[in-house]
Design brief:
With 143 residues, the protein is α+β, with helices and mostly antiparallel strands. Helices cover 22% and strands 45% of the residues. It folds into two domains: 1-33; 37-142, Immunoglobulin-like (Sandwich). Strands 2-1-8-4-6 form a five-stranded mixed sheet, with no helix packed on it. Strands 3-7-5 form a three-stranded antiparallel sheet, with no helix packed on it.
Length: 143
């Protein structure tokens, strides 16, 4: 009976070491392939689809103001690479505004380089009137 308990402990230890090795390998691969973000920024974004037009000016959010059904609005964000290495910028949109925002994705930016990123919202056919908001997520990956 003591021999069985000892072999169970050895087996448990071997499985734990194997799991740890797989985790270390996965983390090193993710770093090698740039899957780990150097930085992530979430910026609030909003738009109001209504029968009136209006605009908002906000230096810390992407506010598109009020647009008519079938209308659109545009904003730009300037990204400057101040890191000491080239980066890849990935952009995603979360929340109920996600279906309205149009933006590119996957820019490579050299050290000291900059980029003006255009964002637009479009309230196409079938979009309900009302307020929509969410977040634009900027993921900065090391190249």
């Amino acid at each position: 009976m003591g021999s069985k308990m000892k072999s169970d402990r050895v087996l448990l230890l071997a499985v734990a070491v194997l799991v740890f090795a797989v985790l270390v390998f996965a983390v090193s691969l993710s770093d090698f392939f740039g899957w780990v973000a150097v930085d992530t920024e979430r910026v609030y974004a909003s738009v109001n689809v209504s029968d009136r037009v209006g605009f908002n000016v906000n230096g810390s959010a992407l506010t598109f103001g009020s647009i008519l059904p079938g209308g659109s609005s545009s904003r730009s964000v300037i990204f400057q690479n101040t890191y000491s290495f080239p980066v890849e910028l990935r952009i995603s949109v979360e929340g109920d505004i996600a279906g309205l925002v149009q933006v590119g994705d996957g820019w490579e930016i050299p050290v000291g380089g900059g980029l003006e990123i255009p964002f637009s919202v479009y309230a196409g056919p079938g979009v309900r009137q009302g307020f929509s908001d969410g977040f634009v997520v900027f993921r900065i990956l090391r190249q």
